[in-house]
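Sync notes, pocket subgroup
Present: LS, DG
LS reminded everyone that the earlier model was apo-only. Rerun requested with NAP included. Inputs:
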Amino acid sequence: MPKLSIIAAIAAHNAIGKNNQLLCHISEDLQRFKQLTLNHTVIMGRNTFLSLPKGALPKRKNIVVTTQSLQFPGCLVAHTLEEALQLCEEEEEIFIIGGSSLYHQTINQADKLYLTYIYAPFEADAFFPTLDSAQWHTTFSEDHPETDVNPYHFSFINYERND
Ligand SMILES: NC(=O)c1ccc[n+]([C@@H]2O[C@H](COP(=O)([O-])OP(=O)(O)OC[C@H]3O[C@@H](n4cnc5c(N)ncnc54)[C@H](OP(=O)(O)O)[C@@H]3O)[C@@H](O)[C@H]2O)c1
């Protein structure tokens, strides 16, 4: 069984998106996302796929879940989450990359969370589920104060599920 990981960037009040877009772009966060997910499988909801500026993410197996009979260039399509997971049974670690709907459906089965907390409020219409702190312990934490190039204070925090 592959390890199921969630990766997300979360602003104040669990906000993650607005009008099917990310709330902000932090280059270090985008680099970390790429470094962690490269050569792995990423699973996303249809809305998240449609939000990607260049479509399928290169050098990754992209799986899009939708209830509809649709095709997406460079992607495998799954019609249920179970079907998506079955497409990666041989893999070591797979990444749920959003959006809100996918995060809510997988938070209780995920093994690992790679979260970026952005300490700023944004107007939002998409949210990450509230973490049950009894279920998780921190395995990594790295703070990034705001700088001239990056106006946001953020932290990378990884969690693993308690046994
Ligand atoms: N901050 C972050 O890290 C981050 C990351 C990714 C996305 N986001 C943001 O999240 C927002 C999008 O979230 P969202 O909840 O609207 O959309 P989403 O989770 O990306 O996609 C939802 C769609 O996926 C399909 N779907 C979901 N669960 C399914 C299932 N079990 N079986 C089959 N199909 C399923 C459905 O498509 P059909 O309607 O076609 O059936 C559903 O309408 C955007 O604002 C985006 O920018 C943020």
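DG: The mean pLDDT is 97.
LS: The chain is about 20% helix and 35% strand.
Action: DG to write up.
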